[in-house]
Specification:
Number of helices: 3
Shape: elongated
Strand content: under 5%
Order of helices and strands: HHH
């Protein structure tokens, strides 16, 4: 797997954990599972940025998402 795929998976995991965090805070309970998924997503994003030569620019992220989607979706 390459750095682009790690970045996309990390972004998706981090984005999907935001509703879980908001739900936990609104129910006044600890967001334990949400915190773990944020850590996993953040770790994947950090690994992708470090393993990609030169890192990623913020403007480059939409291109990476489209490239990965085009590669794996028929």
């Amino acid at each position: 797997m390459d750095a682009d795929l790690y970045l996309v998976i990390g972004l998706v995991i981090a984005a999907l954990s935001v509703p879980s965090i908001l739900s936990a805070f609104s129910d006044k309970r600890a967001p334990r599972a949400s915190a773990i998924t944020i850590l996993i997503g953040g770790g994947l994003i950090l690994f992708a940025v470090q393993s990609h030569p030169g890192g990623y620019a913020l403007a480059e992220i939409p291109d990476v998402l489209v490239r990965v989607a085009a590669r794996f979706l028929p």
